[in-house]
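Researcher: Can you fold this with zinc ion in place?
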Amino acid sequence: MTRPPFEAPTDADVAVVSQQLGRPARGVIGIAARCVCGNPTVVATSPRLPDGTPFPTLYYLSHPGATAALSTLEATGVMTELAATLDDDGVADAYRAAHASYLADRESIEVVPEIAGFSAGGMPDRVKCLHALGAHALAAGPGVNPIGDAALARASWSPERCTCAEPGAARGA
Ligand SMILES: [Zn+2]
């Protein structure tokens, strides 16, 4: 898990991310989380893409196994269940703090007025995208994003069990 400032991604990192996404990766400024094999699982993306487009999703889940597992959770109604946990004041407070932390991380890289106050995934008070919330949890580590942590805990995918198409490709293995 890695938060800003990020080390610049290597060419091999960007190549793996492009393969994961099935398109050329744009605006990659670092690798925020990795599989146990070293391949990227979460890319840090510039708050403003090279073509000038504002991009709020600083932490973007790139790993196909992870995105598939979280899509499965979304399809089975887990978002409603996780949203209900926000009825607990402690969880709601932690989720708002996760939102603030996300914005602080992003604004430490660049402040983009068009997306000021918008983080990702439905934060600070809704649950709209488990991919974005899981990516934040993977980047920030356990205990920062309670909904992202809960989603990852239920997912059939884990960064501790490599399911990469080419394990270790980012490290030239
Ligand atoms: Zn792997």
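Model: Folded with zinc ion in place. Residues 35, 37, 39, 162, 164, 167 surround zinc ion (CB under 6 Å).
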